[in-house]
Amino acid sequence: SLSDAPQDYDNQAQLYALNQSLRFGDAWELRAVSAWFRSKTLSHFDIDYGAESGGATTQWEDSDGFSQELRLSYLGERLHGTFGAYYYDEKNRDDSSGFINLNFLIGLPAPQLGNVVYDSGSPSKVKDMALFGELDWLLTERLTLTGGLRVDREKNSRVTTSSYDGDSLASRLLVASLQGSVLPPDGSVPVSREFSEVMPKLGLRYELFDGWFLGATYSEGYRPGGDGYNAVSGRQFSFDSERTQNTELSLKGSYRPWRVQSALNLFYTRWSDMQIQLGEGVDNYMGNTGPAYVRGGEFEFQWRAHRMLQLIGGYGVTWGRFASDMAPVANGADYSGNRLPKAPEYTGTVALEINPWRSLLIRPDITFVGSAAANSDNEPLHELPAFHLVNVAVRWQIGHFGLFFSGTNLTDETYRRDANRYNTSQIDVVSLGEHRRMVGGFELQF
User: Stretch 192-199: mean pLDDT, rounded?
Assistant: First the structure.
């Protein structure tokens, strides 16, 4: 790390949840899940990531939200169903302040021209409501039909407030000449967007022979769009919602004499208007492109080798690409045929579940993650190499009281989560994954 300014991230968060259920006879159950969260974050960034005083940013984020979900479930002889409603309300405060040194920006060592200083705010509100339902109908003793539907509506709004100035005559003249073109004028810009989608699901499951099922499912999903603001570059941007069409084939079953369970899934997903990160330097923003595709498969198994020992494993491979006929992106780059960002070539897990006593569970595991492209441009320098993590979880449960402990990345492996050049110096920056981490706590059920 060469940064001359602080590079840190301080977050405090609380989450409270209440899960309630009420049964109506043997067939009906009503479940209500309520949740409230609060998160406060203070961050400092060196926007040039170098030893020179090129600029720095301080960001304050404060968000709180509430969600409520109601689910009514029915379990009959030939019909199984779940119907429900969902509501989500979130408010965010997002304020930034900082400076950019003019000499560093234009590469002039002297005389000192001063700094461009800025303050910005981008508070936002998000409300989401949904109705959903899914029904399993046993058509014959071996054939089951599944149908589902989710209707989702989101409204999000944001008010972008910005103020730019200089701390010298030269920097004030520069700000005055750029505002209204490169930099936005001082003031506030309110933006409000609404997104609505209807997402169907249809599936068939057939029991080939006792305990083994062949399935096929088609479903659709979406992620809402929105608006954003880059305080450093002054860019205000909007991006649309993205949509997926998902097809899956599966074979699942168990062989009781060997106490083995396994599942094989093959999947294919098509993206429309995929949301990706665009831009360069400090001018990065969200945009849309597509179509894009992901296909692959995964295999999972469980083997109860002994009353006190179970072996669990899984391995998945993915092949994700932007289409050769993809739409041009906002920055004019051509990503046709490139790998999708942050999509590893494979993932895998091998775990042991050890039960020396009924109340104690010890679960060591190794997780494998393949290499991936960090960004849509697939630049080799920003490749995310493959890595593996060694973890362990321990749980002791007596009645309604439980103690748990987990340790992740026990070997303290150094691995990449991201890599890019989003800074004024065009320095290659790597974000590393978490080092060794220990977590412990207790649970009380009532």
Answer: 95
Question: Does 89 score more than 80 pLDDT?
Answer: yes
Residue pair 165/236 in contact (Cβ under 8 Å)? The answer is: no
For residue 422, what pLDDT is reported?
Answer: 84
Buried residues in 113-152 as b, exposed as e (16+ CB within 10 A): bbbbbbebbbbbebbbebebbbebeeeeeeebebebbbeb
* pLDDT the model gives residue 330: 67
Helix/strand/coil (H, E, C) string of the chain? CCCCCCCEEEEEEEEEEEEEEEEECCCEEEEEEEEEEEEEEEEEEECCCCCCCCEEEEEEEEEEEEEEEEEEEEECCCEEEEEEEEEEEEEEEEEEEEEEEHHHHHCCCCCCCCEEEEEEECCEEEEEEEEEEEEEEECCCCEEEEEEEEEEEEEEEEEEEEEEEECCHHHHHHHHHHECCCECCCEEEEEEEEEEEEEEEEEEEEEEECCEEEEEEEEEEEECCEEEEECCCCEEEEECCEEEEEEEEEEEEEEHHHCEEEEEEEEEEEEECEEEEEEECCEEEEEEECCEEEEEEEEEEEEEEECCEEEEEEEEEEEEEECCCCCCCCCCCCCCCCECECCCCEEEEEEEEEEEECCEEEEEEEEEECCEECCCCCCHHHEECCEEEEEEEEEEEECCEEEEEEEECCCCCCCEEEEECCCCCCCCEEEECCCCEEEEEEEECC
Angle at 246 between CA 243 and CA 249, to 5 degrees: 175
Note the pLDDT of residue 234: 80
User: CA distances (Å), 276 to each of 170, 215, 335, 379, in order?
Assistant: 37, 32, 11, 15
**pLDDT tens digits along 357-382:** 989 999 999 999 999 999 998 999 99
* pTM for the structure as a whole: 0.84
Task: Give the strand pairing for 242-255 and 260-272.
Answer: antiparallel
Spatial separation of the C-alpha atoms in residues 371 and 394, rounded to whole Å: 30
Closest CA to 3 of 382, 435, 423: 423
Phi, psi of 325 (to 5 degrees): -110, 30
What per-residue confidence (pLDDT) applies to 429?
Answer: 87
pLDDT at 207: 95
The per-residue pLDDT for range 408-436, each reduced to its tens digit, is 999 999 999 999 888 877 788 899 999 99
Nearest one of 140, 50, 60 to 101, comparing CA atoms: 50
The span from the CA of 355 to the CA of 363, in Å, is 9
pLDDT at 338: 92
